[in-house]
Amino acid sequence: MLRYFLLFSILFIGLINVRAMWLAQVGPKYPPTKGEVWPKPQVEVKEQTFYVFNPSQFKVKVLDQTCDILTNAIARYSYLLENKLGLKTHPTAPSPQPEGIHSNTSYRGHLKELEVTLTSPCEEYPHLDMDESYNLTVSSTTTLVSSSVWGVIRGLETFAQLFYVSDDHNDIRVNKTTISDFPRYKHRGLLLDTSRHFITVSNILKTLDAMAINKMNVFHWHIVDDQSFPYQSERFPELSERGAFDPSMVYTKDDIETVIEYARNRGIRVIPEFDVPGHTGSWGIAFTDILTECYENGKVIGFGPMDPTSNTTYKLLRDLFKEVQNVFPDKYFHVGGDEVELQCWKSNPKLIDYMKVHKLTASDLHALFMSRVIPLLANATVPVVWQEVYDEGVILSTDTLIQVWKYNWITEMINVLKTGHRVLFSSSWYLDALGSRWTDYYAADPRQMVYDVTSNKTLMAGIVGGEACMWGEMADDRNVINRVWPRASAVAERLWSYQDSSTRYRSSRAPSEAYNRIEEHACRMIRRGIDAQPPSGPGFCVV
Amino acid sequence: MLRYFLLFSILFIGLINVRAMWLAQVGPKYPPTKGEVWPKPQVEVKEQTFYVFNPSQFKVKVLDQTCDILTNAIARYSYLLENKLGLKTHPTAPSPQPEGIHSNTSYRGHLKELEVTLTSPCEEYPHLDMDESYNLTVSSTTTLVSSSVWGVIRGLETFAQLFYVSDDHNDIRVNKTTISDFPRYKHRGLLLDTSRHFITVSNILKTLDAMAINKMNVFHWHIVDDQSFPYQSERFPELSERGAFDPSMVYTKDDIETVIEYARNRGIRVIPEFDVPGHTGSWGIAFTDILTECYENGKVIGFGPMDPTSNTTYKLLRDLFKEVQNVFPDKYFHVGGDEVELQCWKSNPKLIDYMKVHKLTASDLHALFMSRVIPLLANATVPVVWQEVYDEGVILSTDTLIQVWKYNWITEMINVLKTGHRVLFSSSWYLDALGSRWTDYYAADPRQMVYDVTSNKTLMAGIVGGEACMWGEMADDRNVINRVWPRASAVAERLWSYQDSSTRYRSSRAPSEAYNRIEEHACRMIRRGIDAQPPSGPGFCVV
Question: Are residues B144 and B199 in the same domain?
């Protein structure tokens, strides 16, 4: 029976793939779209009529409120538009007669200006509940309207993505379009690990540029870890002096302020992570006391997580966090809490005694540690923790954000949500899986997963968003940009856009239009200085 | 029973990994070596005594024969040495007292000069049987001796790899060393596919630089394929005019001559591949006649392989090959022959008739095609073909080189070798397997595989070498360099160096010293402008 089934399957697969198998695949695997937006807007009505774009006849005008963020954004996009967004026309082709374009029945004139209307005053920093919605109309009058500067920034990006080169390569066009857009999830993040390999500030800024192109709004800076400590502390300079890979591989206060300001101007929050008590090897080069000595056969064999019974640990964390929170303005702060090597704690005679005296397990010690560390954060700080902290039963305030990253994520999310906590989802979005393609990331929708099991809309609303995670073991300055992009774009669209129900859970298969659209998007990123890798196969990008 | 076995395995694995599991991994996963050569020389005696290197007090002197290739090589390495090979000393560290270095008992003075002795006249082009052996002695007199200019080039590269920065970062050193070196395999190649994505000439030249650093000696240029035809033909300009992705994405005759000359200066052969009769979709845009129309339900559904019954096909190939062979000086020429879609031939009414009349199968047609194409090559050309051509029973001259790339490669190699043909091995070395690590490539040794099955040394000698293959579906100008390097370095060392018998077949595990040595090597490539990716995990490279 099995044999017949297999035979049938092979025949069946043979039939549906017969064309693909036989025929020579000439040209790009997926021809790029022309002027399609990524991530896909919520509501978009596009007509076949078009306007021709000529930078010398075009300007951007601000009608209502303004502020430094808006002025900077207008300057950035004006510069892009002046440079035709990197789009290449062929001036050597037979020169288009003015009559030529006028005889095209879809031609509606040249694009004159973009009127930007911000109806409320700017906010100083982006935040979880910021309004990113906007309305954009490209027509005889072209307008972008939002009640928030963040919405204007998102709308400007959308506007920039509507332009395309005509089929005859003679001009740049934009179709008559109406867009009403807003994000599905509030937290659309990218984690970058700068400890396993140091990433230069210029590549971090480039990453922020790419995030803005993809409408992502949280840069989760996993700044230190076991391997190195590049954060340069004013209070504890020894930490990076001894814990950084090299004196050249540190982030100064100036560097960090540069990153935060660059991000703020693009509507991107910067959430630092100082992962404790595990993943702290590099801290221990300067401050051996704060780590636990691990024992084997009665002898110290090295260091493990922080010592949860030592006051020195908490004192250092209190003072360091105070300094860090003065640099990072975001209300959210990630204290890690993942992968704590309890075996080391269980091997240490002092901790064995401590656990015996206080009738605690090693898990309890982890809980104890986190419950002492979280209150060290400034008032009104919202802690973010990896799921282990929740799993080990630490009493957490309901506003704590739990980042789910392990297997069995649906059960985990439901459990976390049922206790009233909010979820940040990452399990399906690890970019360090080098063999994974964008389509693998594209299929996963955390709210849908929870809804499909629980049919509970209130519950699923507790998922505030997710993050693509670029762990740094195999990513450094040389390859980080093309490791992240365009694969993280799949996560960006999943978090911003409506998901076509027909493609849910169909891992490794996205809707057919998305294959063509991400080709244009990857080439768009390349034209704008982001060295994205090929999304899905053979093709090309003219720059 | 199985349960107990599993339990035992888990406990056992737990025991041997206990240290790695518990302890914080501070710093690089594999600290780089200092002044170790990749690929490993055959005989190397290194002492702990050292010489200090100061570019202003050093020069390279040629004692015997010379020629343009030698002069150019001396100029390249002199420039590198003048720039300290990119090695960074810390002049800000406490300045080293002259007494300081003199009080070091291992110090043997400053390195004065390198005497290069070439004992025979130069050859004009590298070739399969070229001599690449050399002897290098770093001592009070430092000498590099070879009877071949190719050996001198390999020796200069080795010399450049011996330098390292002292632990106190104060000076650049080179240990007293004697090396006697030669390659195990004659053909150590890299295939680059420039059809699925166009690769600019500057990245091809960079690839040749990297190959020279890794002592690889054949650039297999898979220049055209189904997707695009970037080769610009003088005789048939339509091929690239219509078949290239974009007018900017072609290789002119000048471009190709630049590549060949750059390669020649580095002792690298350039073997072009014009893959026929399959993988030729892009040819058909200009010359529809030469392709086979594929049918389904009595209707043409598209194009397949070349039409093996059409004289137009052979005439075009004859004239094109003639032109191509005037540009590429190498005696070897790759005519492809892989993955021919016989189903298309079997669907075409004209070919069905032809096969009926001549009592041929579709496989026979493939054989017929190859047997008519190979004689179109210039006299004395050695054809290279993919294994299918052998598998389908084409009568091939014994000098034909068969490139083995599919599964069951051991059986295939033995079969090919037994009929007196030579083997080029690639099955284990596909770089487009993105998840594969350098250690996966490192384990495979084609001669050893054949010897382990046959115990026949004569047979195994028929394996002339191998090639790492960078197929271009997911590699373009943005990522090709770090996709290839340092993973291809594993193949380079396997083909050049003696293999430690303890590590044979132990896929995904290399000898411990190699982990540290490839870290230095990857950083060395980065310092010399090749953006290699991290080899094995966390670490850093100061540039």
Answer: no
B window 415-444, beta carbon within 8 A of A? 434-435
Question: Between the CA of residue B136 and those of B42, B139, B142, what are the distances in Å?
Answer: 12, 10, 8
Please give the structure tokens belonging to residue A382: 């919202």
| Number of domains within chain A | 2
Q: Does B104 reside within a domain? A: yes
Residue B486: give its domain's CATH number: 3.20.20.80
Residue A388: domain span: 187-510
- Is there a contact between A26 and B285 if contact means CB atoms under 8 Å apart? yes
Residue B168 CB partners (closer than 8 Å, separation 6+): B93, B96
Task: For B34-171, list the strands marked E by DSSP.
Answer: 43-53, 59-62, 107-110, 113-118, 134-138, 142-146, 164-165
Please, which pLDDT band fits residue A18 given cuts at 50, 70 and 90? very low
On chain A, the residues whose CB falls within 8 A of the CB of B473 are: 29, 534, 537-538
Please give the Cα distance from A480 to B417 (Å, whole number): 44
Instruction: Out of B22, B294, B531, name the one closest to residue A343 (CB).
Output: B22
* Nearest chain A residue (CA) to B285: A26
E-strand ranges in B328-479 read 332-336, 382-386, 401-404, 422-425, 463-470
Is A472 a member of any domain? Answer: yes
Joined together, the tokens standing for residue B222 give 């898979």
Residue A193 and residue A171: Cα distance in Å, rounded? 42
A137 CB-near residues (< 8 Å, 6+ apart) = A143, A177, A178, A179
Domain assignment of residue A411, yes or no: yes
Give the number of A-B residue pairs with CB atoms closer than 8 Å.
187
Residues in chain B with pLDDT values less than 70:
1-21, 91-99, 501-508
Tens of pLDDT, residues B514-530: 999 999 999 999 999 99
Q: Give yes or no: residues B157 and B194 share one domain.
A: no
Residue B108 sits in the same domain as residue B195: no
In angstroms, the CA B110 to CA B113 distance is 9
Specify the pTM: 0.94
For residues A304 and B22, what is the distance between their CA atoms, to the nearest angstrom? 6
pLDDT in tens, A454-471: 999 999 999 999 999 999
